[in-house]
Design a protein that fits this description.
The chain is an alpha+beta fold. The protein has two helices and seven strands, in the order E-E-E-E-E-E-E-H-H.
Length: 162
């Protein structure tokens, strides 16, 4: 699932430089008001090296769309660091959908948690997703035992420390 924000760049338009949330969008963004082609800014992120243990996440947010005097830019960044680790990888994420610091904080914390649970580095166009395992108690004992063994093996492979 790719998320993006589309901006109308036509100055006389009443929706000029106002973001429109786009989900799984591809192609050119056309303003629904003035029908001019605008700018699309996708969420994206990347790792600074190839280690799987992440110490730091930096989220760039509060995107300002381009106009005649400046190029589009992220105005603010938010950093979350796991101080319990001596060293680790860093993940940089650009989030045009986020405008406020509280949203960037939640995003950075969620990314740091999800990154330290994955087994391979994320693709640039797809930020990591949080994982969860749902166990059901309404199965026979053998099926429940298999679920518990799978969960145990998954936790043993995790790099997270208590």
């Amino acid at each position: 699932m790719r998320r993006a924000v589309g901006y109308c760049l036509h100055e006389p338009c009443m929706n000029s430089h106002k973001g429109v949330f786009l989900l799984n969008f591809s192609g050119d963004f056309t303003c629904h008001n003035c029908k001019h082609v605008g700018e699309v800014v996708y969420e994206r992120g990347y790792c600074l090296d190839h280690r799987l243990l992440f110490k730091r996440v930096q989220v760039f947010y509060n995107y300002r769309s381009s106009n005649d005097t400046h190029d589009g830019a992220f105005l603010t960044s938010f950093v979350v660091t796991d101080d319990s680790l001596d060293s680790g990888n860093e993940y940089v994420f650009y989030a045009p959908c986020i405008k406020m610091e509280a949203g960037a904080d939640r995003c950075a914390m969620g990314l740091l948690s999800a990154l330290n649970c994955i087994t391979e580095l994320p693709h640039v166009d797809q930020p990591p997703k949080g994982t969860e395992l749902k166990m059901t108690w309404d199965v026979n004992l053998e099926a429940f035992r298999a679920q518990c063994e799978y969960l145990s093996a998954t936790l043993e492979q995790s790099r997270l420390r208590l």
